[in-house]
Amino acid sequence: MAEQTAPPSEPTPAVQPATEPGEQTVPYTRFAEVNQTAKAAQKQLLEMRERLEELENRDKSELERERAKREQFERQALEMSERLSRVERSGWIRAAAAEAGVDDPDDAVAFIGAGDVESPDDAEKAVKRLAKRKPKLLRDTQPTQPPIGHVVQNGQPVQAGQQQPEIDPAALQLLEQVKAAQASGWTSSTIE
What we know:
Layout: E1 16-17, E2 24-25, H1 28-58, H2 62-100, H3 105-112, H4 120-133, E3 152-153, E4 156-157, H5 169-183
Antiparallel strand pairs: 1-2, 3-4
């Protein structure tokens, strides 16, 4: 008795090894196929919703249909108004955060929340409270490295009025010897 196995109806794509352990990749063809299926399902859903609305409206009078449309438009207008309000309030927080020296104003929006602010003054107060609670959100005002051309001593910038570091006498003597060699034509590059 010979065992027969039915061939698979669809070829299953091989999972390719990933660059990191525990991670797998999917071939692009499979990815495109899933996206195409999702788009088709979305289109079918929209068509079904339109058909359902048609069937529901079939038995309604014209006045009822117009009322339903008006209610739908009112809901959409209210939703858009709320969105606009959130965007405006977030803008107040971002502006106050930038003025207060917050490194990333979006962090301030995330910590404060647009719903907690009613005016630009409220946003400023909220950002000040946030800056006191979380000072690490503020920009670092001290440069991490001194600007090019500034004298440093042990890696730290020398402030005006501080004593300049002493120059090694052996280094001065070597510099004088190199300048003398340059003057006599022994070197090709100039040292200033």
